[in-house]
Design goal:
424 residues, six-stranded mixed sheet, binds magnesium ion, alpha/beta, binds adenosine monophosphate, 28 strands, single chain
Length: 424
């Protein structure tokens, strides 16, 4: 055994999560790279995007109808002279300046002519013989967005550090960006451990188990914009483990699975301690996932990479080997670190609420994240547990689409209660 000080008390889920978030806040993002606009989708923006023109670039009509002077509609119905027609994409004739008693037919997305201060919707009008009769008044400004009201030329549209979702991509496209600077994907080493674990290419013996954790983790890493680097399976043997852990520590983040429980052959913590690891917690009051380990190892000073921004540590997680524990603890703890390494402020965990279909009974003491199926429609979200054989049951988990969160102090959640749900 390593000679570490008396272990601190096991943190609650919230305490452990905060420890991770605090470390994530101090982490450096990876390098920047230029990519094509669509390749940037789901990546993290590394440069601000600035408006190259006003948004909108002209006073834009938001309705089909007639551009008017609102004051002309003080008495209704009003009859105005139609002096022009303005389509989207075509400028009004330069001489068109709306005078008292005049209106111009206008289409959605077209520039409002000078002199007009509102647009009346076509539904309230009827045009005959060059005159339009208007049955409803408008207030000044109605149905016109002034030039620059959404954003002024030169102002910041998108800040560095945001994840580029479809709306952000639309903004970048509107600013004429064919390429964007994003952060490189952090490299996340994945190391599965266990004498019984075999690679997919190997026909497993009767007591052997195929390595599924490396693949679920790789898929989760990819979904979080990381680059998984799969290492070979490590045997429960210190020298082999040390060699592969050392290799994994060269990545931006190392995820280990298995070998962190209290078993005689659970050597992961011991080997990490020998490599000089600093541990922030070695367990949390959750299930599945109680044995989770979080820490870091100092990086050797690299001569070739002398930049001041080079990280001083490689962080690691020792995730419990039970496949469902591995999946849940990734979502609960690894994601904020990966977000930070991607260059963004880690997203908060957000739970939604759904009505429990069938009662749940558990023991108190640990916060539980139990695989469940979320169904129902519109505002009537319903949820129920999937029947499972515990945290090794990947088949049941694959049928689930969320986790029900059971507080540590609850023994029974009755059917009909609104319960917290974590989307997987
Ligand atoms: P451990 O955390 O090493 O005690 O492993 C707990 C359980 O998870 C055992 O039943 C292992 O066989 C299983 N397990 C560990 N690693 C993997 C893996 N990479 N893929 C699938 N199952 C695993
Ligand atoms: Mg094991």
């Amino acid at each position: 055994m390593s000679s570490r000080a008396i272990p601190p008390p096991i943190p609650t889920f919230e305490q452990a999560r905060h420890v991770v978030e605090q470390h994530a806040a101090g982490m450096h993002a990876s390098e920047k790279q230029f990519v094509e606009l669509l390749e940037a989708a789901t990546r993290v923006l590394a440069e601000p995007v600035v408006a190259d023109r006003n948004f909108p670039p002209f006073a834009r009509a938001t309705r089909d109808g007639y551009a008017v002077r609102a004051a002309d509609l003080a008495r209704l119905p009003a009859s105005l002279k139609v002096v022009g027609e303005i389509k989207a994409g075509t400028a009004a004739s330069p001489s068109l300046h709306l005078q008292l008693g005049q209106a111009a037919a206008i289409m959605t997305g077209a520039p409002a002519p000078p002199g007009a201060d509102a647009v009346v919707m076509v539904e309230y009008t009827s045009e005959t013989g060059g005159m339009v009769e208007i049955a409803k008044g408008v207030s000044p400004g109605e149905n016109i967005v002034p030039a620059g009201a959404e954003a002024q030329r030169g102002s910041r549209l998108l800040a560095a550090g945001i994840r580029l979702d479809h709306a952000a991509i639309a903004v970048a496209a509107s600013a004429g960006k064919t390429h964007l600077q994003v952060y490189a994907k952090p490299r996340v080493a994945v190391l599965a451990t266990g004498d019984e674990i075999v690679e997919l290419e190997v026909l497993p013996g009767p007591t052997q188990i195929r390595n599924s954790n490396s693949y679920s983790l790789a898929a989760q890493i990819q979904a979080a914009s990381g680059e998984p680097v799969l290492l070979p399976v490590a045997a429960d043997e210190p020298n082999h483990l040390r060699e592969l852990i050392s290799e994994g520590l060269e990545a931006d983040l190392l995820l280990l699975t298995g070998g962190v429980s209290m078993g005689k052959h659970d050597l992961v913590e011991q080997v990490l301690a020998e490599l000089g690891a600093e541990f922030f917690f070695t367990g949390a009051l959750i299930r599945p996932g109680r044995p989770i380990v979080f820490g870091r190892v100092a990086r050797a000073a690299e001569s070739g990479r002398a930049s001041i921004a080079a990280p001083k540590h490689t962080y690691f997680f020792g995730l419990p080997g039970n496949p469902v524990s591995t999946m849940v603890t990734f979502e609960l703890f690894v994601r904020p670190v990966l977000d930070a390494l991607c260059g963004m402020t880690p997203r908060k965990l957000v739970f939604l609420y759904a009505k429990l279909k069938t009662e749940i009974r558990t023991k108190t003491g640990l916060k539980r994240f139990l695989p469940a199926v979320l169904s129902g429609e519109f505002e009537q979200a319903e949820v129920e547990l999937v029947p499972w054989q515990g945290s090794g049951d990947i088949v049941a988990t694959a049928r689930a689409n969320c986790y029900i969160v059971v507080p540590a102090d609850r023994e029974r959640l009755p059917a009909g209660e609104w319960v917290a749900v974590l989307k997987g």
